[in-house]
């Protein structure tokens, strides 16, 4: 399944429609429960509803965990939330809260579902790879559809690589 990418008039935001397993590696390979994620400012953004679909839990569960994350100061609310305009089926536009990847990951540790368990199993493999190699890379995304990664990302990666080789 190919990802469908739409760029807005600012050219800095992409709406990515993809199966959850295709978009976030840790989700079940069955691809159940498609998620529309916004990719903007070198980050991934989901609504509470989207996170509920991603982790296969009720939105109320996501909301409960968000309140705890913010009340415990695990994450700073103002730095991880951004409004994006959503157009509904009836053509109305609404500013809707989206939460960045830090929140999506934090929620993954809080919820108790089959998909969350898959997430819990996936994270240590990434951390182990990073600890041993010093980096992790999503080879499949680079081979199949690097278009979701911006030119800015590749410039940063190239500069980091050069600094490491020639300090």
> How would you sum up the major sheet?
6 strands, antiparallel
Level of helix content?
40-55%
Averaged pLDDT, please? Answer: 75
Net shape: globular
Helix count equals 8
Strand order of the largest sheet: 1-2-3-4-6-5
Poorly predicted parts:
1-30
Q: Whole-number radius of gyration?
A: 17 Å
Summed up, the domain count is 1
What would you note in describing this structure?
By secondary structure, the protein is of the alpha+beta class. The chain has one domain. It contains 8 helices and 6 strands. A 6-stranded antiparallel β-sheet has the order 1-2-3-4-6-5. The longest helix has 20 residues. The protein is globular, with a radius of gyration of 17 Å. The N terminus is likely disordered.
Short description:
Helix content is 49%, strand content 21%. The protein is α+β, with helices and mostly antiparallel strands and 167 residues long. Helix 2 crosses helix 3 (59-71).
């Amino acid at each position: 399944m190919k990802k469908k990418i739409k760029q807005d008039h600012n050219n800095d935001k992409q709406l990515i429609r993809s199966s959850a397993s295709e978009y976030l590696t840790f989700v079940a390979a069955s691809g159940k429960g498609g998620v529309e994620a916004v990719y903007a400012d070198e980050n991934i953004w989901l609504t509470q509803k989207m996170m509920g679909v991603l982790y296969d839990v009720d939105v109320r569960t996501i909301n409960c965990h968000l309140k705890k994350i913010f009340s415990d100061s695990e994450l700073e609310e103002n730095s991880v939330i951004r409004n994006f305009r959503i157009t509904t089926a009836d053509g109305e536009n609404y500013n809707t809260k989206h939460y960045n990847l830090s929140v999506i990951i934090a929620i993954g540790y809080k919820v108790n579902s089959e998909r969350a368990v898959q997430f819990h199993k996936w994270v240590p493999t990434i951390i182990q790879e990073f600890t041993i190699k010093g980096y992790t890379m999503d080879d499949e995304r680079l081979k199949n559809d690097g278009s979701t990664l911006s030119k800015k990302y590749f410039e940063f990666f190239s500069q980091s690589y050069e600094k490491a080789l020639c300090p």
